[in-house]
Every structure is written in C-alpha cells, then in structure tokens.
Amino acid sequence: MTGRRTCTAQNLVEFAIVAPFLFLFVFGIIEFGWAFYVHSELTNAAREGARYAAVLGTVGFVDIPIIHMSVRWWRTLHPQPIVVRSEGPNMPTEMLVTMLVTLVAFIVLYLFLLIVKYRIETVRDAVLELRAETAN
Fold first, then answer.
1. Cα–Cα distance between 49 and 58 in angstroms, integer?
2. What's the pLDDT score for residue 3?
3. Cα 20–3–10 angle (5° rounding)?
4. What whole-number distance in Å separates Cα of residue 62 and Cα of residue 97?
5. Do residues 82 and 99 touch, judged by C-beta distance below 8 A?
C-alpha cells in the first residue's frame, strides 16, 4: 500500500510542476490565435469601410445632380425650386438667413477640420523624418 501511495504522490508532484507550464503554453497558443483573429478582422473591416465609403461618395456624386434635375423634369411629383432659381430665391427671409448662416458655419467647420488634418500630417511627416535621421 505504501508503494502505491508513493507513486500517486510522485505523480501529483510531477503534475504540479508540469501543469502550470502546460497550461501557460496551451492558453498562450489560444490567446495568440485570438489576437491574430481580431487583428485580421479589424484589418478587413477597415478595408471594407473604406470601400463602402468610396462607393457611397461616388453614388452620391452621381445622384445629387439627378435629384436636382428631377425637380425640373417631373414638376407634378416635386415642389417647384425655391432657392436655386433664375429670378432669385423664393423663400421667407428668416429661412434664407438661417440657411445661409448654417452654410457658412459648415464651411468654417470644414476649413477648420482641414487645417487640423493638415497640421497633423505635417507633424507626422516631421516625426517620420526624425525617426529616419536617428535610425541612420
């Protein structure tokens, strides 16, 4: 009976020594696979998003003139043009002022974001140049 207990105790001690390394190895492989999967999915999602954005921009570019001209082509289905007319805009002054203020606000916002993006890219280029200089 003591020989069997000694063998069981020895097996338990060996398992206690080997098990953490075995579990670390197995779970490390699983975690690496999961990280690789997530990286692959994020890369594909970014590519898909860029593709959809390009298609949406192209469709919008083509669709806006069609929508504008549909007002003139099918006058029974659409209201008459109000803002873009050869005689001038035919809308209440309050609405026209609000529309123009909003248009100016969006243009200012666009220019601000464009300047911020330009500065970010300028700083990024400077950082890349400094890295290239320090690598040499």
1. 14
2. 58
3. 10
4. 29
5. no
The pLDDT assigned to 5 comes to 64
Supply angle C-alpha 74, 99, 69, rounded to 5. Answer: 20
Instruction: In whole angstroms, give the CA distance from residue 17 to residue 8.
Output: 14
* Contact indicator for 71, 78 with CB cutoff of 8 Å: yes
Contacts of 68 (CB under 8 A, 6+ apart): 84
Query: What size, in residues, is the chain?
Result: 136
pLDDT at 56 over 60: yes
The predicted pLDDT at position 86 comes to 75
Question: What gap in Å lies between CA 61 and CA 55, rounded to an integer?
Answer: 10
- Cβ proximity of 126 and 133 under 8 Å: no
Q: What is the pLDDT of residue 55?
A: 93
Q: Give 30's pLDDT tier (boundaries 50, 70, 90).
A: very high
